[in-house]
Amino acid sequence: MADHVRADFDLVTDGTWLSCADVLYGTGGPELADGLLRRYPGALLVVVRDRGDGRCTAVTRDGARIPAGRVRGAWEHAVLASVLHALFRVALSRCPDSAAAHGGAGCRRD
């Protein structure tokens, strides 16, 4: 069972499904990702792929733009989005102050 919900915003047009996603991915640039993060506050990050060369950029809620390699298609993009989400959650769980700045998502205060 997956520990997160990912949604391809190129294919999913149902706003409800996009609102439930922990990570969004699709084609576009960082500016599109910024808008998606504003529109869907449940997403921890958005991974956008350049339509031309397949280069990906992960965009976080605090505006960081992280080069994330190149993918050859939708399946690789989906896997990359899931891996980056998992890494981001681990990073947030180790930095409680940072997690609070991101809405507390992924942060356990034991």
What is the secondary structure topology, with strand pairs?
Blueprint: E1 6-8, H1 15-20, E2 23-27, H2 30-39, E3 45-49, E4 55-60, E5 65-70, H3 74-94, H4 96-101
Parallel strand pairs: 1-2, 2-3
Antiparallel strand pairs: 3-4, 4-5
Termini Cα gap: 24 Å
Q: How much strand? A: 15-25%
Give the H and E element order: EHEHEEEHH
What's the pLDDT, averaged over the residues?
Answer: 84
Unreliable stretches? 99-110
What is the overall silhouette?
Answer: globular
Spatial strand sequence of the major β-sheet: 1-2-3-4-5
- Per DSSP E runs of 2 or more residues, the count of β-strands stands at 5
What is the CA-based Rg, rounded?
13 Å
Q: Name the structural class.
A: alpha/beta
Q: Total helix count?
A: 4
Helix share, percent: 25-40%
The largest sheet, given as strand count, sense and whether it forms a barrel, is:
5 strands, mixed
Short description:
The chain has 110 residues and is an alpha/beta fold. It has 4 helices and 5 strands, in the order βαβαβββαα.
What does this structure look like?
The chain is of the alpha/beta class and 110 residues long. Helices cover 39% and strands 23% of the residues. It is built from 4 helices and 5 strands. It has helices at 15-20, 30-39, 74-94, 96-101; strands at residues 6-8, 23-27, 45-49, 55-60, 65-70. The protein has a 5-stranded mixed sheet with strand order 1-2-3-4-5, sandwiched between helices. Strand 1, helix 1 (15-20) and strand 2 (23-27) form a beta-alpha-beta unit. It is globular and about 40 Å long. Mean pLDDT is 84; it is low at 99-110.
